[in-house]
Each structure stands twice: as C-alpha cells, then as structure tokens.
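RETRY 2/3 - previous attempt timed out on the joint model. Re-submitting the same 466-residue input unchanged.
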Amino acid sequence: MSRVYIPLILFVLLILEGVSIRFLPPQIAAGDLLFIPHWILLFLILVCIFYDKPRTYHAVIYALIFGFLIDMIYTGLLGAYMFTYGFAMYLTHILKRAFHGNFYVSLLLAAIGTALSDIVIYVIYSVIGFTDLYWTEYASVRLLPTIIINLIFLVIIYPMFVKRFIRWRDEQDWSS
Amino acid sequence: MSFLRRKRLFIFLISFIILVALIGYSISERQEASTLEKFFNDTVGWIQSAVHVPVSFITGIAGNVSDLITTYEENKILREQLSQYKGLIYEVQELRKENEELRKAIGETDSIRDYEPIHATVISRSPEQWIDEVTINKGEHHGVKANMVVITADGMVGKIRTAYEFTSKVQLLTGFDQYNRISATISKDGKNNIYGMIEGYDKESKSLVFRIIEESEKDVKEGDLVVSSGLGGVFPAGLVIGEVKEVGFDQYGLTRTALVEPAADVYEINHVIVVDRSLEEREEEVEEQQ
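RETRY 2/3 succeeded.
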C-alpha cells in the first residue's frame, strides 16, 4: 500500500503548497519576512529516516520527481528544486546512518536539510538574477523564518506518519 | 571502492550538467510552454481549483470575524460616499452617451478604452515568494493570451506570463522588472497630460517606479492617479495603476521619476479580471507602411 500512499500524500502536499500563503495571517504574509514551505522535503526526510532501508533510495527518487513538478508548476525555472531536493535527500540518506531514528534526530536532519536546500536555491537564483539580496540580508529575511516555519510543520506531521512508515517498512520485508 | 567513488562523482557531474542545461532551457526566451509543462499545469490546476474552495472557506472565517468588527465604521463612511456617487452616475451616463454620439459622428467606433473582461479565480500562489506569480483558472480555451493585463476591482495587479489550455500564470506587479514596462499617464485638468513608463517594482519602498517622459505645465503632485495610457499597444487605456507617493530624480539626475503605490493589494487577491483589449494591435499594418 505504501507504494500508492506516499506519492499520493506528496501530491496533496504539492497542491497545498500553492495555497500555503493563505494559512498565514495577512499581516504576516504581506510583511518583509519570507516563509517558504518546503513541506515535500520535510515529508521525504521522514520517509528517508523511517521508511527507507540503507540500500533503498525511495526518498531520493521521489525528491527528484516532485522537485521537478514544483519547478514546472510553481517556478517555471526547471531543474532548481529538482537538483536541490535530490541533493538534500541524498545527504540525509548518508547522514541518517550515523544516528538512531528518533524525534530529535528528525528535527536535526530536517533543520540541516531545509537550510541546505534553501541556501542552494538562493545561490542558484542569485546566479540567474531572480534575486539580488545580499547574503546577510537573505539569512535574516528568508532563511531563519523558513527554517522555523518548516520545523513547526515537522512537529505537526511527525506523530501522524512515523508509526505508519515503520509499519510500511516492515511490510516491505514481507512482500519482497 | 575506487570504482564506486568514481561512479558517484560521475553521477554528480552528470546531474550538474543536466541542471545547467534545464536552467538554460527555461530562462531562454520561449514563446510557448512545452507540451509537458502544459499537461502538468492543466492537470494540477484542475485539482487546485477543487482544493481552493474548502481552503479559502476555512481561511476566510478568520477574515470574516475581523471584517465584522469594522463593519459599523465602514458602513457610515460608505453611506456618505454613496450619496455623492448618485450625482456622479448621472453625469457619467450623460458623458458616455455624448461620447458615443460624437464617435459615431466621426465614424470611429472602437476605442482603446474598450475591453472584453474574462472573469477568473486565483487558485494558487507560487510558494517560492521570489517569483511573484499566481495561477488563475482560465486559459487559452477561454481566450486568455500571454501579455494580457490582469486587474481587480481596485486596479491593475499584473499581466499574463504564460497561458496554458485551462489555466494561466499571472506575473504580479511586484515581480515586474525593466523588461515589463507599462505605458502610463497622469491626467491633468485642462493641461497636457503627463506621459511616462512604469519601469519596474522597487522592493525597498514597495512601490512602482514611474519614469516621466513628457512633462506637463502642471507639476506632478502626491496623490495623483496613475492610469495606463494604452499607447503600449497591448493594454487598454484608463486602467488604474496606483497613486503617486513621492517624486524625485533618477540615478543620473536627467529624468524625473515618481514612486507609485499600487492601488490593488497583491497579497489578497481572489477574483481577477483578465482584460482582452477590443481594439486589435495594428502592428502588421504599421510595419507594412514603413
């Protein structure tokens, strides 16, 4: 069942990202700070930690596919999110071997993953000329708010999915 | 092991090349979106319009409560304004009738002011906030084409960047740069109008930059209304863009620029109108004449 559910949830997250700005109060949304939802990345970090086995790369493949969809549907700049998410997931895959899968490790890896991908996106966008923010300004206006809002999101989805992922991972053994 | 490491490096390099190639492809000057993009945008757009309804209902509740609190005050002001408008409506009707008759008399019926409205709903907004873009639920099938202007009841909000079959992407005023100029004008009573160009959005002052090309005898004042002039050939005339906030010189001190505060709120847009100018652009004829 996990083969159907995980892409389906990712697809729902993809669509919800498009209306994410409505969940913020209008005063904050119109303010200077930028809150970028990286929900797909966070969900995939949980997939990577709790569902993927050391030798499977589901999360990386999903990151490439859904990163490409984000590029096509929301930014129009193909490749940026695909490359960034794929790279971040691959790094998470390597890092998770050093830790036990628990809540604090997920928080840590999510913070690293979000920060890394947002910085790579900033670098790509400033090379192309989509933004001309100086990096100190970028760190306070976009990077910090984005990490904080995404960690809050992780705290919300963590109890909803972790047990299911572990169950699905064990089911994989049965079927294979 | 050395083989594995080499393989990893190889994959990384290839993916980097693919990244550069994809970015190069997407920032090149494309007129049409690729079939794959059209397919995914239309499919997702269809689901987005279904999701949009419950989401805006839930998020609307909070807005409704704060609206209710201010309703009484607003009602008072609106009632005062309403009595003024009644006189104005009569005047406008008379002027419109007179205008039409005069137009008939000189045999010119189409005006650059006329447009066909295409009503649309905003179904999503790009989560990447550096790209000021929203998606609307009308596309080529409904007559939307690239570069059409998009307005709300308050004024201009942007223009169509790409039109897919059933959805389209709107580039908001806040994302305008020097490549998206709007020919605009400030109307002056009894004197020549001031003409100029909206040349982009200044993020620091949160306003549009209006470069004045043709001055008038009367000077620009704060609070002057900037409207589209229709001389650019794509947008119809008379669409409200914003109000003058500040007047100054450009960086070289040669021309004067005014900072214009957009009339429409680009953060809370739900229903928009895509403006299809009735008068066709006569570019080909002009080229032939030359």
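Helices of chain A lie at 2-18, 26-29, 39-51, 58-75, 80-95, 103-128, 135-175. Closing ticket.
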